[in-house]
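Many introductory courses stop at the sequence. We go one step further.
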Amino acid sequence: MLLDIWAELSVYSIPEIIAVLASLTYVILATREHRGCWLAGIIGSSIYVIVFFQYKLYMDSALNIFYVVMAVYGWLMWQNRQSKVDMLAAATQSKTTIKEWRCTKHINAIALTILLSALSGYYLDNYTDAAFPYLDSLTTWSSFLATWMVVNKILENWLYWIVIDAASIYLYINKELYFTALLFGLYVIIATYGYLHWKKLYQKNTHETLIANN
């Protein structure tokens, strides 16, 4: 077991190490609502596009192209910070204010994700040699959704990431990618913290908005 983990560590190239560090930086800064998270995301995902393509992990490569696009979008979305007074006065309209989704939105989003996962999983299972085609599809499409939720500051995005990252741990362990599984274990911890932190900010903003409107 330890030898397998060491072998996994030893084959990691410098670009992969940089991508891992950039990805961790992105998640940590995102939990703090720091705009710099998107720059780290652009760097990490851009490297992963090339790395995954070289290893013929085409779906992961495509996913990281999406991450780059969403990171640029996130950088633009978060660029105009309002003053605290203005933000409180327009909290419900502000694009940079943390929001919650109604249950119906979650149901619709999850249903669409499952449908897309089933379709792509069927294709991968029948026309490619992909490993775990349905689980791989589900984590990929769910990641698309969760990334969009982060950009738009939907509070529950962190709950989605906890489930996605936990499923990814199982996937990577079965592929004997132990270092990557460990990385996603850290993601679970960070996502848990991110949810608790954003929840606190959301409750604070809601309380201050009520006071400002009275």
